């Protein structure tokens, strides 16, 4: 099955166009591999989507099965962050572009991506309400009837206090950038947005190598 | 008198009947003073002595009526004095057992009759008459006295003007006298109190526990055994039976020193003394005091056992040395107190430092309105809180270490690292026990706001998922974790457990966050212990294997902080941490960093640096040094040493310096060509780095080859130039130490002279801490071996400060000072100065020093002094008891002391008169007793002394009688020509006596001497030949007698 995709791709013009979007450190062969992975993972979903790419549900399945993400809100947001043209599908271009950020992207790029995921399609700020949405499942139910709600609100307060440098009650990109630069742990402060970067990378790296070898 | 009696005399608290005075040295002293006053009263103030008391002093006496002599009417059981008052009443009236006395005259007479019962009578009198002043002068005087001491005199004057009359005047005089006595007594008792150190069961127990640890068989222990007589301990910590506890006694001990019989010792609140020992029949203790009272157990034992004091002094050096090393100087500057330094002063200064740092870290922190006002508000309280804590620590440490010398002597640690480990352990352990309770017991009201905030965050750590955990961790990091309040708050709300648990999860981010916090709070010694107790170290050691470099770094840095005490270092080792840490050092070699780096990654160099940091902390334990070496750490350290990053160099050199105490390491350091790089880094800008390099050189330069290497790589010049900066005392100590060791080689000394280092060293002889002085003087002592340098030292006025240092107490310093002074004395001109400064007397008095090293060194120094002094014989005689002291030192069992004392005696004996004196002190039998020795140094000096001592009276014969001759003959079989020469000379002298010749002949001396005649050494030739001729002449005479 793999071969079919490969042959299909090699002839397409898309490939050469794609290079333009990639992060400069991503090598040609790596792109090819990424494309192969794309088709590989897509292949796990619905075969019909081969040419267009996964829609939201398929993508969520991928996020769940490959990256172990569970949070609905975040998965949706990651999807929207991938789907730059808002056509509800992730095409090869979007896929490769995003993943190249994870693989070889600079810190700033990753930071931008995370911020995008968090602020969603808002006004460029992460507001308290959004944070609340993102954190609402972050506390284990200690005992029934305990005010987890209040606990989460306090947690939100703590987070805002930590990151809101200009004291406007919401987090701008500048706030976010400053906080993350000070402490890199804050990059995924509101949940694993960048596909649980480290684990994902190791996953990708391994499939990467496998595919590269397969290609040779 | 009244005030003194009520305030400072120690009354027993007995509730019933009359109060009694406790039997204490203080009371005894007070009563004695009073007796003295009363006795002299009759002579000093004869008029006032006749004054009749308002009320008689009355008490139950033990005096027998028959004791009273003339001037008294004795009838059966009553005695009346012939002296009567105006009304005809006798001034002394005794009706067994009651006695009434109404004048000072009678009082002092009574004391006269009491003879050796004075003390009891006076005490009974004071006990029975609660308010003697009121009885003597009338009640109104006493009231004034008690109420207002200051206006006493003026009110007396008032009274004088009011009612005139001769009797009142006398009364006033007496009142003034009594007042004076009172003041005198108060002063006196104050002196006593300040001398007196009250012991309590706790301190006694600590002392005993400590001594127990160092007791046992073997040479290095201080005692053979130390045992309580009773296993039962009362709830108040005492072991004495209750009826003895009333007397203030705490417990009884059976102590067996190496060199004395079992001592039975009583520890009481007043001090420690020998009691009557166990009585054989019932195993009961004879509680009677049999000796002087010492201030504590150690002092008593030092007095009773020479070996104890010797070994104890060795331990003390280690005691004071280890803690100091426990404190690497990089990060932990912010660390809150509990540096182990013994003096409060240094503690205070480090506190200051902390506070400054604290302020700085607050400033550099980004402004954060909501948090910041809290910190600023509570920072004041916190400081005061910390101060009181520091004082607590200070007090405690001061107490528990009061018996240890505060000197931080930089002695070279040879051998017995094991004991050192035990010591470091025991000291830190006891500290832990002491400290923990008082922090946990804080009441809620006093808790700072941080406490509650931190508690909330810990709640999220416990109950949150990864996201919440990370937020909480990041937020926690914003607290000032260098502050003890925050550190303890994290612990007290159970944060440590959670943080350590997080390390065991798979979440990299959580691990990083947790380690970042642990790294900060582990600057606190209590937290360190808690982390170890909670099993944090094995987890961290495992993290060292992680593929994430930043995790490795953080784990290594945290280990570096935690492994500041022995138990922690042991845990690191037992879990294979050392090998892993050494492996971290290996990262440094990939100079080309891979282009791709994961999000949280750091550079390889950083990993190596953290590894070195952790190894530095760990390398303070002997076993860890070995482990580092076995794991192949030395070549890696050597390679890292070639980098130019200061951050890297400091821990690397620090580790090397720590390890260089081991012979193995010094060899490896030489082999790995590390010296070159150490020398290079001496030129660094960083003071700390310079310090550690100098320290490492100091350790390594024990070896001659190393000393040459230092010179060849140009290390002497930077060392010499570093001498000019005296502000950083630690560095100065390290640099002077390096110079000392380097100057053992002659070539190096020449270089130092070129660099004018000797002048600078002389300048450092004043106003420096002891650890610097030890090294400076040591270096000067080495330099003094050369004539030119001695001249330099004299010319720049170095002799006076050197002689001044002879009065110190630091053993290491004294050894060096005596050596230096001795070396200077070789120069007659310098000798004049030394003599003028009374240096010889000071040296002589050092012969009484308990440490054998000091004794020997002082004795060696005395030799050139006696040789070069102008009127040496007279000078020596002027030291009262000096000759006897020297002769008695021949009873020592230290070979070095014996050899040096022999050398001194050789010089003393050059003066006939002195030779006569030492002969009277029995020098001959003592020398003869020493004759059976294998030590060539001792043999040589002994033989010289014997040949010198033969010059007086019948000493030759006496040596023969004390069987010194036969062993001397055996000396000729030694391999040392110096021994041969001295022995031949001694035999020559001895051979003047016929019996000695026979002994020599019987022991085969002739053949040995014949060989010596062929020696190239002329003196030896001559002495051997002379001796043979004496023997031969005797043989001829015998033959002649036989045939004639």
UniProtKB/TrEMBL annotation, chain A:
Signal peptide: none annotated. Keywords: Calcium, Metal-binding, Repeat. GO terms for molecular function: calcium ion binding. SMART domains: EFh. InterPro entries: EF-hand-dom_pair, EF_Hand_1_Ca_BS, EF_hand_dom, Recoverin. The keyword Repeat applies. Pfam families: EF-hand_5 (PF13202), EF-hand_7 (PF13499). Residues 70-105, 151-186 form the EF-hand domain. This is EF-hand domain-containing protein. It comes from Moschus moschiferus.
Automatic annotation (TrEMBL), chain B:
Residues 668-695 form a coiled coil. It comes from Moschus moschiferus. Its main location: cytoplasm. Residues 313-409, 423-446 are annotated as: Disordered. ARM repeats lie at residues 535-577, 881-923, 963-996, 1004-1031. GO terms for cellular component: axoneme; ciliary base. The keyword DNA damage does not apply. One of its GO terms (biological process) is regulation of cilium beat frequency. Keywords: Cell projection, Coiled coil, Cytoplasm, Cytoskeleton, Repeat. This is Outer dynein arm-docking complex subunit 2. Transmembrane segments: none annotated. It is found in: Cytoplasm, Cytoskeleton, Cilium axoneme; Cytoplasm, Cytoskeleton, Cilium basal body. The keyword Cytoplasm applies. Component of the outer dynein arm-docking complex (ODA-DC) that mediates outer dynein arms (ODA) binding onto the doublet microtubule. Involved in mediating assembly of both ODAs and their axonemal docking complex onto ciliary microtubules. Residues 313-338, 379-401 have a biased composition (Basic and acidic residues).
